[in-house]
Specification:
The chain contains 20 helices and 30 strands. The chain folds into four domains: 51 residues, SH3 type barrels (Roll), CATH 2.30.30; 305 residues, Rossmann fold (3-Layer(aba) Sandwich), CATH 3.40.50.150; 124 residues, no CATH class; 107 residues, no CATH class. It is globular, with a radius of gyration of 31 Å. The strands form eight sheets. The chain has a ten-stranded mixed β-sheet with strand order 7-24-8-23-22-9-12-14-13-21, with helices on both faces. The protein starts with 6 loop residues before the first helix and ends in a 7-residue tail after the last strand. It has 669 residues and is an alpha/beta fold.
C-alpha cells in the first residue's frame, strides 16, 4: 500500500506506465515484508515546518499564514522595493507578505541566530548561564553542533511517546492513532535528532531517553543502531502509580533507556553511579554533634550515638542502618562493617595476631576475606582496625562518609502526581497537565553527571530539566549548566479551539498560549526570581543566571556583510561557555576580549588583539575561543600564528553558516 510521505512510494508514483508501476509496487511490498532483522522502518520525506520568524525572501517556499489552503509556492520576486507584496510561482499570483509564512524542509540550508527575550542575572557573576532556546529543535540542534560538539556531559530527553493521544507533529501535521505509518514517522523524526545529539556528547557522555510502552521496544533498537548495543547501560523502570487508560492491566511503568557515548571511556574512569543510603545524612549530622560534645572520649560519644539510635521512631530512615557504630580516635564515625565485608573465601587461612594481646584473632570457619598480604596492607593503610583487647575483635574500617553509597537500582517508585502538584504550586494554577518530575531528574543528574556538567534537553517542554539543574546546584553547590530547547507549540485540542476562533500560528493570541510563552518561560522566571507573573510570591528564588532566546533565521548576505552580528553574538558566547559578559556589538577599536572569548573584527588590529590575548593567557583568565572575522584564508592563518597556542580559533564569516552549521576552519593548536 502506497504511502504519500515515503520517498520510494513517491518515486514509484511518477512512473507513467500503469502496468510497470503496479508491478514495481507489488515487488516493493514483498521486499518490505521480507525484512526481518535490525531496526526496519521507512525513512520518510524530510520534515517540513512552518517558520513564523523566518523572513520572506526571493526563492523561499511559502504558504498562507491563515492555513486556508495547503498549497505552497515559491517567491519569485517582489512588486516593489517595499517588499510588501510578493509575486508567487504557479497560480499563487500576488500576495501580501504579511499573509504568508515560510515553509522549510529539513535538508534546506537555514541561517540561525538567537534573539534574547529574557535575561535573569540572579547568581554569582562567574557562574555559568543556563540557556533556553525557543525554536524548532532540529534547527537548534544543528546550531548547537557548531557550538557544543563533543562538549555535553549528559543529554536527557522526554520525546513524544507516540500514544496516538499526545498529538505530536510531523510534516506540520498532528500524527494520530489512525496513521498506519505513525511508528515509522516517529522513528524517522527521532533518528534525525539523535544522530546530531550523538555528535554533541563527550566521549564520556551519557544520554537518557524517557519513553512509554508504546514505542519502548522500537526506541531501544533505534538507540542500539545509533549508539551501539555495546554502549547500552540500563533500562530503568519508573513505577509511577496506576494508569487508567488500559482495559486489561494497569501498567504504571514508564522507562528511561540509558546509553553511553563510549562505555569503554566510562569504564576507564571507573565511574560508579552511587547514591546516599536513606538516613546516612541524619546519622552523620548527629555524629558531628555528639563528637563535638563528647570527643575525644570515644566511649562516651559512641554510647551517646547508640542512645540516639534507640530514640528514633520505627519509621525513621536511620533504622535501616546498623546501630553498631563507633568512633575512631580522630572522630571519624564508623559503622560496624562485619556483616558488610566481603564473604570469606575457602582456604584463605593464616594466623592473624591481635596487636595488643599478640594472640591469634578468631577466624571465620571459611577463612579470611583477603589474602594475608592484602590483609596486612589494609591494616597498614588503616582500612582494618582492631578494637578492645579481645582476640575476636577484628573490624573493617568503613567510615559512614565513604560507605554510605549504593549503586542505583534499575527500578524505582515515584508517584507521577507529585510533578503536577509541584508545577501547580509554581504557577498557582493548573496550566500544564503532565510535566516531568524535577525530583526524579535531580536524582539521575546527580548520579550520571559531574558537578560541573553541561546538561542538554532538546524536548524541553515545560522547563523541568532547567529547574532540576538549578535546584541541584543550589543543593550541593555544583556549577552544572542547563541548555534547554523547547518550542511554542500548542496541543492538538487547544489548537483546534483556537483555529475555530479564527486564530493561527503567528497570531499574538495563538503564540501567547504556546508551551514556551505560557509554561516554560514563566516557570523558569518564577523559580529563579521567586515571583510569579502575577506579582505574587512563590519562594525566595534561586542563585542562578538564565537567559531565554528565540531562534531566528537570518539573511546570509546580511551575515556575510557583518550586519547581523547582534543576532549571531549569542552563538559565539555559547561556544565559549556562556559565562560572564557577552560581546554584542562591534567596538570602535576593532576587537573585543572578555574572560571567556575574544572577537577580532578588524584584521588591521591583529597586533593589538594578539597582544591582549597573550597577556590574558599568561594570567589566570585564558580565553576558551577566539573568533577571527576575515574572508581570507591567508589572513586567518596569519592570525593563528600570532595567537597563543592551545586556544580554539574560529574563522568567520565566509560561508558563515552552511547547512545549519557554522562553517569554521581550524581548532585548538
Amino acid at each position: 500500500m502506497a504511502n504519500e510521505t515515503n520517498v520510494l512510494d513517491q518515486l514509484i508514483g511518477r512512473i507513467e506506465g500503469e502496468a510497470l508501476r503496479d508491478r514495481i509496487a507489488r515487488e516493493v511490498d514483498l521486499l518490505r515484508g521480507s525484512r526481518r532483522f535490525g531496526m526496519v522502518f521507512d525513512r520518510h520525506l524530510p520534515e517540513s515546518v512552518r517558520l513564523t520568524e523566518h523572513p520572506i525572501r526571493k526563492g523561499i517556499r511559502v504558504a498562507l499564514r491563515d492555513e486556508s489552503s495547503a498549497d505552497t509556492w515559491t517567491v519569485e520576486r517582489f512588486t516593489d522595493r517595499t517588499r510588501e507584496v510578493a509575486v508567487l510561482s504557479g497560480d499563487g499570483g500576488e500576495r501580501l507578505v504579511s499573509d504568508l509564512i515560510v515553509i522549510r524542509e529539513f535538508g534546506e540550508p537555514i541561517y540561525p541566530g538567537l534573539r534574547s527575550v529574557e535575561r535573569i542575572a540572579n547568581g554569582p557573576v562567574d557562574a555559568p548561564w543556563h540557556s533556553v532556546i525557543n525554536g524548532e529543535n532540529f534547527h537548534a540542534l544543528q546550531a548547537l553542533r557548531s557550538t557544543h560538539r563533543e562538549k555535553v556531559d549528559l543529554i536527557y530527553i522526554d520525546p513524544p511517546y507516540n500514544t496516538g493521544n499526545d498529538g505530536w507533529i510531523y510534516n506540520d501535521r498532528y500524527v494520530d492513532q489512525n496513521d498506519r505509518a505513525k511508528s515509522s514517522k516517529w522513528l524517522s523524526f527521532l533518528e534525525r535528532r539523535l544522530l546530531i545529539a550523538k555528535d554533541l556528547l563527550k566521549r564520556t557522555g551519557v544520554i537518557v531517553v524517557a519513553i512509554g510502552d508504546e514505542e519502548h521496544h522500537r526506541l531501544r533498537m533505534l538507540l542500539d543502531q545509533i549508539f551501539g548495543d555495546a554502549n547500552f547501560i540500563s533500562d530503568v523502570v519508573w513505577q509511577g502509580g496506576r494508569k487508567n487508560d488500559s482495559r486489561y492491566v494497569s501498567n504504571g511503568a514508564d522507562y528511561m533507556l540509558i546509553y553511553a557515548r563510549d562505555e569503554s571511556a566510562l569504564a576507564a574512569r571507573e565511574i560508579r553511579w552511587r547514591e546516599e543510603k536513606p538516613g546516612v545524612h541524619e546519622v552523620l549530622e548527629q555524629g558531628h554533634l555528639v563528637w563535638g560534645e563528647h570527643g575525644p572520649n570515644e566511649e562516651a560519644a559512641t554510647a551517646a550515638m547508640r542512645a540516639w539510635f534507640n530514640s528514633q521512631s520505627k519509621d525513621s530512615p536511620v533504622q535501616a542502618l546498623s546501630r553498631n557504630i563507633y568512633f575512631l580516635p580522630d572522630g571519624t564515625l564508623c559503622g560496624d562493617a562485619d556483616t558488610r565485608s566481603p564473604s570469606p573465601r575457602p582456604n584463605l587461612r593464616y594466623e592473624l595476631l591481635h596487636p595488643i594481646t599478640r594472640k591469634p584473632c578468631r577466624m571465620h570457619p571459611n577463612g579470611w576475606a583477603y589474602s594475608e598480604e592484602k590483609m596486612h596492607q589494609m591494616i597498614a593503610e588503616g582500612r582494618i582496625i582492631f578494637r578492645g583487647s579481645h582476640n575476636d575483635y577484628v573490624r573493617f574500617k568503613r567510615p559512614l562518609e565513604s560507605s554510605s553509597g549504593s549503586v542505583a537500582p534499575s527500578v524505582f517508585d515515584r508517584q507521577r502526581i507529585h510533578s503536577g502538584r509541584h508545577l501547580e504550586g509554581v504557577f498557582g494554577d493548573k496550566r500544564f497537565p503532565f510535566p516531568k518530575d524535577h525530583g526524579v531528574l535531580m536524582r539521575w543528574f546527580r548520579l550520571a553527571a559531574p558537578e560541573d556538567a553541561i546538561i542538554l534537553d532538546f524536548f524541553g517542554g515545560s522547563g523541568t530539566t532547567a529547574e532540576a539543574v538549578m535546584q541541584l546546584n543550589a543543593e550541593d553547590g555544583g556549577t552544572r549548566q542547563a541548555i534547554l530547547v523547547t518550542n511554542n507549540e500548542i496541543g492538538a485540542t487547544e489548537a483546534k479551539k483556537l483555529r475555530k476562533a479564527g486564530l493561527h500560528p503567528g497570531d499574538p493570541e495563538w503564540e501567547s498560549r504556546g508551551v514556551f510563552e505560557y509554561v516554560c518561560r514563566p516557570r523558569i522566571s518564577t523559580v529563579v526570581t521567586g515571583t510569579r507573573p502575577d506579582g505574587s510570591t512563590y519562594s525566595e528564588g534561586l542563585e542562578a543566571n538564565v537567559e531565554m532566546f528565540d531562534l531566528t533565521y537570518l539573511d546570509p548576505g546580511m551575515v556575510r556583510r557583518g550586519h547581523e552580528f547582534e543576532s549571531v553574538a549569542p552563538l559565539f558566547w555559547l561556544e565559549a561557555g556562556a559565562r560572564g559578559e557577552r560581546i554584542e556589538e562591534v567596538p570602535e577599536q576593532g576587537w573585543a576580549l572578555t574572560d571567556s572569548y575574544g572577537v577580532l573584527f578588524d584584521f588591521d588590529m591583529l597586533n593589538a588583539f594578539a597582544a591582549a590575548v597573550t597577556v590574558a593567557a599568561t594570567g589566570d583568565r585564558t580565553p576558551l575561543a577566539l573568533f577571527i572575522i576575515t574572508d581570507s584564508p591567508a589572513e586567518y592563518q596569519q592570525a593563528v600564528k600570532r595567537l597563543p597556542a592551545g586556544i580554539e580559533t574560529v574563522q568567520l564569516y565566509e560561508d558563515y553558516l552552511s547547512n545549519y552549521t557554522i562553517n569554521t576552519v581550524g581548532g585548538a593548536r
